[in-house]
Amino acid sequence: MAVKCVDYLVIGGGIIGVNMALHLKRRNPDCSVSVVDKEPELGLHGSGRNSGVLHAGFYYTANSLKAKFTRDGNRLLKAYIKSKNIPLNACGKLVVAKDESELPTLDELLKRGHTNGVELTKITEAEAKEIEPRVKTCQYALWSPNTATANPVPVLDAFRKDAADLGIEFHCSEPFVKAEGNRVWTKSLEFDAGYVVNAAGLYADKVARPFGFGENYAILPFKGLYLKSSEPVGSFKTNIYPVPNLANPFLGVHVTVTVDGHHKIGPTAIPAFWREQYKGMKNFRVGELMETASLGSQLWMKADFDFRKLAKEELRKYRRKHLVDLSQSLATGLDYPTLTHWGPSGIRAQLLNLKNKSLEMDFVFEGDDKSFHVLNSVSPGWTCSIPFTEYMIDEMEKLRK
Question: Does pTM surpass 0.90?
Answer without folding.
Answer: yes
